[in-house]
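Regression test case RT-17, inverse folding.

Input:
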């Protein structure tokens, strides 16, 4: 189930990257993720415009983890949380929630790798800078320069 760990790492990385995008683009985009793991069925449907699709309880459960989730969080069911914890991920118990078609389920939020996401530990932001961030920096530097010139004149 190494693919599950990679999927969680990807979701955590997307969340962090979105924070960078928001800082540099002056937006407030948010992300909500639901993850489940298990058997499913996949196939191609449609004669004129074939489309690949997947079905099954796993797909429904992941969809419900998303739709009942909280913005900015990655929500998983109890068994997935236990597996992730055994692989070094830090989780936070959300508690019991009502899930359509499933009844009451115990769910957890995935916080990330325990060694990388401890409280108070600074994260390393991406070194990629957007055009908006560069322009903003230039404008701020120019304002500072204008203020210094105004102070010298007085």
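Golden output:
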């Amino acid at each position: 189930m190494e693919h599950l760990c990679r999927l969680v790492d990807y979701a955590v990385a997307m969340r962090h990257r979105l924070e960078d995008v928001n800082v540099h683009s002056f937006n407030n985009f948010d992300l909500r993720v639901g993850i489940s793991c298990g058997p499913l069925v996949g196939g191609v449907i449609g004669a004129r415009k074939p489309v690949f699709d997947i079905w099954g309880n796993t797909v429904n459960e992941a969809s419900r983890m998303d739709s009942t989730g909280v913005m900015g969080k990655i929500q998983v069911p109890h068994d997935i949380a236990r597996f992730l914890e055994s692989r070094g991920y830090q989780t936070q118990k959300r508690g019991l929630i009502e899930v359509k078609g499933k009844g009451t389920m115990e769910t957890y939020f995935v916080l990330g790798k325990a060694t990388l996401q401890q409280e108070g530990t600074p994260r390393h932001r991406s070194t990629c800078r957007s055009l908006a961030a560069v322009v903003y920096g230039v404008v701020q530097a120019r304002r500072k320069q204008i203020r210094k010139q105004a102070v010298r004149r007085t």
